[in-house]
Amino acid sequence: MIVEVETSDGIVGVGETFPLWTKDIIDHVIRPSLVGENPFNMERIAARCLPTNANPSLPYVDFFHLLALGGVEMALWDVMGKAVGLPSAMLMGGIYRTEIPFTDYVFVSGHEGPEYHIEEVARYSRELVTRYHSPTVEFKVGVLTPQDDIKMVEAVRGAVGEGVAMRVDANCAWTESTALRTIREIEKYDLANIEEPCGTLEANARVRRTVKTPISTHSTHVSDVVGSGLDAVVINPLQVGGFTRLKKQVAIAEDAGLDIWLHSRAELGFGTAAYLHFIAANRFVTLPSQTLLRPTEHMLTREGKPDLINGKMKLPTGSGLGVTLDYDMLEKYNSHFKEVGEYNWLSSSGLSPPFH
User: Is pTM beyond 0.90 here?
Assistant: First the structure.
């Protein structure tokens, strides 16, 4: 979903969110609440747009309200920066760094057979290191059998060599016993992190107590992870309702000594730019956040794909988010969407956009 917010002064900010049905919430809940509001009143805006006075700890805050607000809030950061002629990062806390660490990551569908995917993940990882000089690679496990996952980790380590950080994400695919057996086998390949080997925080915490490899979890509430014994939190800004609320989660992680990095849903230019501004203004977010920049066909920005060299992207220059909407590309992909419908991430084809 691409979101535009226009002010009475004619300033237009652009953001993005997911999934498709957030449009109904934006049109019928958030839009009426924002008309006449000052875009700088971020706390007030959250309180007006979210149920239960914007308290995300209450179980009946609708998850899709947070996603909808996150896209609108991204556009508001663009508006605010343009209104004062400054990069959004200056309003998010000031620019601490201008080169931001990221790592691309690789999905595995398993439809073509394990040998094919082991070879392809190793090849792609090698390209990230040799062509783009990435100091970190990340890829999925838990799709193939544990034995094949072990072979894949071995193949990737052989492809990228020593000294490159390897992160893997099991997407909660393993039981505790499977996780213990598998992690103990792959620890000799020096993993920097494994994300969510099991399906619950408690199970992951029990596994962490018996293995050496750091374990992260994908969560929208850092406070839930504090004291669990896990090492890091992976978080999507949209899933917490935007960057204003994300900064509070980062503060909790910093206070608790937990690493934190941002999760990617294949952002189309505006999300990528917003990530860059947020991390530029937050000193504590030091480890590479995720991106799906390389397999993405095109960004919906006039500026196109940012460079990802040596594991870093540069902070966009200019006011606001520093990127502008390419209406021709938007029309191209909107027309394509009308023809083929919403992409089915769970399809049996194993194909990714642009629908080869």
Answer: yes
CATH of the domain at 15: 3.30.390.10
CA pair distance 194, 297, nearest whole angstrom: 28
DSSP 27: I
Give me the count of residues in the chain.
356
Closest CA to 159 of 179, 184, 139, 187: 139
As for how many domains the chain has, the answer is: 2
What is the CB-side half-sphere exposure of residue 6 using CA atoms within 13 A? 2
Looking only at the bridges linking them, the beta strands covering 259-262 and 136-140 are unpaired
Buried b (16+ CB within 10 A) or exposed e, 263-294: bbebbbbbbbbbbbbbbbbbeebebbbbbbbb
62 occurs within a structural domain: yes
Same domain membership, residue 102 and residue 85: no
CA angle 125, 126, 129 (to 5 degrees): 90
Q: How far is CA 308 from the centre of its chain?
A: 16
Instruction: Report the distance separating Cα 93 and Cα 280, nearest Å.
Output: 9
Q: What is the CATH number of the domain that holds 150?
A: 3.20.20.120
pLDDT in tens, 67-100: 999 999 999 999 999 999 999 999 999 999 999 9
Query: Would you tell me how many other CB atoms lie within 10 Å of the CB of residue 83?
Result: 17
| Domain that includes residue 278, residue range | 93-314
